[in-house]
Structures are given as C-alpha cells and as structure tokens.
Amino acid sequence: RPLEITLIDRMKNFLSIENLQLLKQIGKLADQINYSAYIIGGIVRDLIIGRTNEDIDIVVEGNGIDFANLLAENLGGTVRCHEKFATATWKHPSRLKIDITSARTEYYDYPAALPNVEMSSLKEDLFRRDFTINAMAIQINEDHFGKLIDYFHGFNDIKQNKIKVLYNLSFVEDPTRILRAVRFEQRFNFKMDQQTFDLAMISADKIASTSKPRIAHELSILLKEKHPVESLVRLGEIGIIRYLIGTHSFNVQKLKTFKSLVDEIVPLQQNQNSETWVCYLVILFSETENEIELVKDYCLNNESLKVTDQIVELLDDNQNFLKEDTLGAIHHSLKNYQTESIICYIALMQLQECFANKLKKYLQNRTQIPKLIDGNDLLNLNIEKGPLFAKILLEIECAYLNQEIHSKEDAISKVKREYL
Ligand code: ATP
C-alpha cells in the first residue's frame, strides 16, 4: 500500500495565506454537500517541487457548476458557467479566478434526463492529462486537507526529475504535448524518460495535422520561457522541428544572437508581453525554402502579425539606415519599428559589429526620448493641426537624439525658427 503523503506543510510554505484560507473554506463548503474537492494539475506539481503557483484549478466529485454557485453564494464573487463542459469559472471578490470542473461518472441536466456529459472519476480525469507530474490532486475537504492523490507515481517522477507520459498513445492523441514536455524539461531542468522520448520521436509527424492555433498557443508559451533556444534545439533532437517548419537543420547562432540581444535591450517589463517569441519562428522559417510569411499562421494576435510584417519589411528595405551616422537619422527611418523587429533583423542579417552596435545604441537611446513638446504646444504656436504635427514632433525627437536640443525651450525655439 502506498504511503499516504500529506502536503500541508508545502501548502503553508508555498501558498499565500489568503489562498490557503480560501482552500480551507472551499473544502468545508464541499463537506456541507458531501462532495470531495481537490486542487489539481500544475499547482500540485509546483507545490511538490517547491515553487509558488497561485493558479488554482479545482475538481469536485459532483457537479462543478452547482459547486461554483454554492461558493459564490457563501463567499461572494461571480460565476461564469460553461454548461457544455459542466465547468465553471468562479471569480472571487479578490479578483482571483478559480476554474472548477466536475469529475464523476454521470451528470444529469435535470432528474431523469439522459446524461449529456460523460464525466469520469477523478482517476480518469487525471489519466487524461499530459504527464505523471501533472496528474496529481490534493484533497481539500476538512478531514483530508492536504492529502496527495497520486495514482500514477507523479511524486516519484518529480523526485527523479522525470517527464513521463501516462500511456503510449498520449503524443499521438495530442502532439502538442511534445511541446509541453520540452517546456517542462527546460523549466524544471527535468528530462523525458527514454520511453517518453522515443514515443515523442515516433509521434512527431502528427504535429503536421494539428491545428496551427493550438500549436501556436503551446509554442508561444514555450518560447516565452527562460530557455527558448535550448527548447528549439531539443525540438530538433526530437525531430519535430521538421514538421513545424519544413526543415530539420537550422542556424542556432542566429537564434542565440537574437536571445542575447533581447536580454541586453528589451526592458524587463516590456519583455513579458512582447512578441519576441514570434521572432524565433521568423528566424527558423528564414532558413527554409518557405516564406517568412508562413509564420503568420502562428500569429495569435495583431501584435505578432505586426512584428512579422515589420521584419519582412526591414529585410526588403534598401537598408539605407545602416549607412546613417546619426541616431536622429536612424530614428527617421526606424521610429515605427518595434524593438523586437529591429533586433530580429540584426540577428537574421548577422550584421557586422559596427552596424549592430549602431542599431543597439539607437534602441537603447530611443527608450529615453522625453516628450519635450506635444500637439498642444504646437497649437499654442498657431500651427495648424494636420500631418505637419507628426513631422515636427518627429523632427524634435531626432534633434534630441542628436543632442542638438535638450529642453522644452530648445524644442520650441527650434519650431519657431524652422516652421514659423
Ligand atoms: P503552467 O505553470 O505553465 O501554467 P500548467 O501545468 O498549469 O503549467 P496549463 O497549460 O495551465 O499548464 O495546464 C493545466 C493542466 O491541464 C496541466 O497541469 C495538465 O494537467 C493539463 N493539461 C494542459 N494541457 C494539456 C494537454 N494538452 N493534454 C493533457 N493535459 C493537459
């Protein structure tokens, strides 16, 4: 009989006090209606590894929607139901969002109706998941608070730093799990076991028939993590890169150049939301016979589409900006380009150091351009509203970058001198 493991200490150490209290309250409410309730998935894995994770997913053996409503009645907040899947999202008054799903054998819309969603036991719910390390639950009912439910030895696999699928056809059923495997390998410094790696290799071709948005979703998460280049190299070893971009060889140096430029130039707060991840795809696609334009199939939003378009434009451009000597002149040409587009261009072209340094200096300086004057200042100078506004404001930015002007007064005198 496996040892019963309790994770109360881990929960105390790695959950916020508020969330720990909330889970206790949720467990007590589940007791009231005789439901078993569990936290499940990534948060359980992270508690065992010893990482904070406040992304709470709950499974109840009972009706998830009813339970979410019960939580809202007792603890406040609002519920959004997804009837079709018998799941609900409960938004706690603290704005925390908790997903609640149902795990039980049958679910009836109303008494005597036919079951419309086949629901499974907790074990089956866990078995449908991607890896043993993600297929654990922790019970939160009062009498069992903290009890680990681990049917597939995920706890041991975490202790041995292993990523293991739950069944042989796992990657065939969902090839995006191969991308997830690499994500967890890199994030935790874990390794797929030999069998999982072999299964990934023989299922790699299945990714070719998976929908692009699903692939893009997983790829974007993978490439936004700390080790995008290593992840791509690993995808190459598995042999899946070929089915994603059409070739298996790629220039790791360009990827590395891009990564180190991102680390050097893209400010941290911008990094989190920026579209740097899509640039890795652009670099990979540029190595193939395929058009970079194909990257657009993976763009999930307008921002990533824009970055892709901009990189293509920069490559097609006559690139005169490389010959410019002043930062102001470079700004004239590149003002509208996102930082990641320009960085990707530097990496793709493997620009000589002198050119790369010039563009780097420009990127670093342009983040510090102050707004010396705005439209109101121009109106006060009796300049008519229109396209001239943008032109003048750009001129002022360029002059600032060239250290020709330093203050608002300088800017206004320049406008008076040149435009009035
Ligand atoms: P992260 O810390 O990156 O959010 P996570 O494990 O919470 O990691 P999610 O993508 O949010 O990852 O998924 C939540 C849970 O849902 C996972 O722990 C896993 O159990 C399950 N899951 C997600 N995607 C799949 C999939 N493609 N196949 C099977 N199970 C999946």
Q: Average pLDDT, to the nearest integer?
A: 91
Strand order of the largest sheet: 3-4-5-2-1-6-7
Structural class: alpha+beta
Unique ligands: adenosine-5'-triphosphate
Q: Count of helices?
A: 22
CA-CA gap between termini: 89 Å
Strand content: 5-15%
Characterize the biggest β-sheet: 7 strands, mixed
Q: What is the class of the largest domain in the CATH system?
A: Alpha Beta
**Unreliable runs, pLDDT <50, ≥5 residues?**
105-119
Gyration radius over CA = 27 Å
Notable characteristics:
single chain, 420 residues, alpha+beta, Beta Polymerase, domain 2, Hydrophobic Seed Protein, 4 domains, 7-stranded mixed sheet, two-stranded parallel ribbon, 22 helices, 53% helix, 8% strand, globular, binds adenosine-5'-triphosphate
